Structures are given as structure tokens and as C-alpha cells.
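Figure 6 in text form: structure in, sequence out.
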């Protein structure tokens, strides 16, 4: 099942943050084959797994595990597209939160769920859905969403101290102290949800650029939900472990794509040799044979593939 996709606006935000922190965004776009034309497409999307791998590589490049929080700090409303402008013209914090959650799918979709906003004990709950299990590839996603929502709300109303507290689903990471430094309120880890809890009195704080006519025009005439025609819906069967097996009859392009698509945090592509399962996380293609005792060599239909990151384990064949 396809996990989902996300607007290239969020990719550009990640790359902009990387550059601002002293990284090399150009190198990353080349490694992930993200051309300037692709990143400039108004309706451009990339898959969520690819976005996660992109973020992980950015974190590695500058050794910044709190990259997601940094992305939130630099969030700009145009990144959200039409949803951002609709929130800008809304009446108050409560309405803006409702808009941000309701129209989230205009800039991304995920089979795991959708963000929501609701009232609980007279306080507002701006909740980001669960993407567990958590690992080094997706912590930054939760960080960036929660941090960005805080920045957006402060920008819209021109005030701070909006939050009562923050709840995070995963356990406290190594950079936990940076959460309270940024959110300026208690941050609770290992909770049942990812959410910003908004103070009761802040819900009615007005937006700086509220415009009733513009808001209604955007909402009623521009933003329209479309019911999916189920007769035209298509479905893709679930992947099975055997789908990741590399065969020596494959081409270099086929193997390269398979390795990239199934690398961490997914199970990985693999080949069976001498009753051993060799899982390949990354590698390089070559039309000619190389002399190397470091890389694991795979001879394919049209050349050689050298695994640069792999692990060998025993396998039982039934």
C-alpha cells in the first residue's frame, strides 16, 4: 500500500533550512535526483518515504538531529499554499486551526491518517496523526509539523504564549531539551498522541489579517472537496518480503531502483548466496568490474552492482 505523498513545497522548506544551517542542499538534490524543474512544479509531489530518506540524509550531513524543529522555526505561510492564505484570513486561532487540519490534504496525503483539531476540556487540541513506529527517519517529521504549527499560529495572530503544553508520542530523544527551548511550555514525551494543546483564552485571539469576505470567497468558491469516484479507484497489492529479492537476471537500473525504494527504514533489497541472506541498503552501479574487497559485488545482466552498505545474516530456506 502506498504510504502517501507530500508537496515539493515542504521539500524546498527542508532544503532551505539545510542551507541556512550550513549544509549543502545542492548535493542532496543531486543525490536524490530532484531537479530544479521538479521542485518548481506547482502541483509537484514526492513520496513520503523518499521525503523521510531526504530528511535523514540532511540530518546526517550537518549532524543536526533536531532538524525538524529548525524547519518549524523557518516555516513560511506560502509553503502551505492556498491553505495558508485561507488560515491568514480566518477569524481567530480556533478557526485557523480548523482550516489547517481540514485542508491538510491539499499539500499532502498519508494512508496513516490526517491531522485534526478539536476542543477538549475547553482547550484546543491541534493533533498530528501517529506515524509510529518511530525511528531516526521519521522523528523529524513530527518535530517539523508541531514546530511549524506553533510558528504559523504565532505569525497569524502576532502573539506568543499560545500553548498550554505539547504532547509527543515517542520517548524523549537525545535533543529533548531543545523542545522546551523552542515551544516555551512543558513538553511531555511518551504520550498517546502528537499534539499542541492550546490555551482556552488563546482560541479567541483574532488574526492580524482577518478578512471575512476573502475568507468566505476562498472557502466557498476556491476550496472544494471532490468525492472520489470509487468505480475508477485503483488499488495496489501489499508488498511481501520476497518482492525485495534481487536476481542476477535483473539490469543495473532495476536493481538500483529496488535498493533505493526499499532501503531504511524499510526491510531492504536482498540476495541469497550460499544459504545466506545479504540485505543491501545502498550501492553503486558500474558497467565494468572493479577490484575491491570492501564492497559486495553482484554480477547482473548488463554490469556490476557494488553494495556499499549491507549486512549478512543466516537464512533458513523451507
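Output sequence:
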Amino acid at each position: 500500500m502506498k504510504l502517501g505523498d507530500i508537496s515539493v513545497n515542504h521539500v524546498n522548506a527542508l532544503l532551505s533550512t539545510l542551507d541556512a544551517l550550513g549544509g549543502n542542499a545542492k548535493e542532496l538534490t543531486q543525490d536524490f535526483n530532484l531537479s530544479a524543474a521538479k521542485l518548481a512544479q506547482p502541483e509537484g509531489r514526492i513520496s513520503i518515504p523518499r521525503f523521510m530518506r531526504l530528511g535523514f540524509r540532511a540530518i546526517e550531513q550537518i549532524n543536526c538531529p533536531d532538524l525538524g524543529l529548525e524547519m518549524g522555526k523557518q516555516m513560511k505561510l506560502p509553503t502551505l499554499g492556498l491553505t495558508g492564505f485561507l488560515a491568514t484570513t480566518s477569524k481567530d486561532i480556533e478557526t485557523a486551526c480548523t482550516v489547517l487540519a481540514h485542508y491538510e490534504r491539499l499539500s499532502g496525503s498519508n494512508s496513516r491518517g490526517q491531522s485534526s483539531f478539536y476542543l477538549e476540556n475547553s482547550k484546543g487540541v491541534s493533533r498530528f496523526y501517529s506515524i509510529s513506529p518511530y525511528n531516526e527517519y521519521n522523528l523529524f517529521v513530527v518535530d517539523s509539523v508541531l514546530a511549524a504549527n506553533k510558528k504559523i499560529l504565532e505569525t497569524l495572530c502576532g502573539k506568543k504564549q499560545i500553548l498550554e503544553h505539547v504532547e509527543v508520542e515517542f520517548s524523549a530523544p537525545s535533543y529533548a531539551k531543545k523542545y522546551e527551548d523552542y515551544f516555551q511550555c512543558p513538553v511531555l514525551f511518551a504520550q498517546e498522541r502528537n499534539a499542541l494543546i492550546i490555551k482556552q483564552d488563546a482560541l479567541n485571539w483574532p488574526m492580524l489579517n482577518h478578512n471575512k469576505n476573502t475568507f468566505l470567497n476562498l472557502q466557498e468558491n476556491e476550496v472544494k472537496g471532490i468525492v472520489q469516484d470509487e468505480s475508477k479507484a485503483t488499488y495496489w497489492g501489499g508488498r511481501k518480503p520476497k518482492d525485495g529479492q534481487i536476481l542476477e537476471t535483473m539490469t543495473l537500473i532495476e536493481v538500483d531502483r529496488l535498493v533505493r525504494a526499499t532501503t531504511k527504514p524499510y526491510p531492504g533489497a536482498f540476495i541469497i548466496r550460499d544459504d545466506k541472506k545479504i540485505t543491501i541498503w545502498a550501492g553503486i552501479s558500474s558497467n565494468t568490474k572493479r577490484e575491491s574487497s570492501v564492497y559486495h559485488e553482484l554480477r547482473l545482466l548488463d554490469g556490476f552492482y557494488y553494495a556499499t552498505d549491507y549486512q549478512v545474516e543466516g537464512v533458513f530456506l523451507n
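Caption detail: The longest strand covers residues 303-314.
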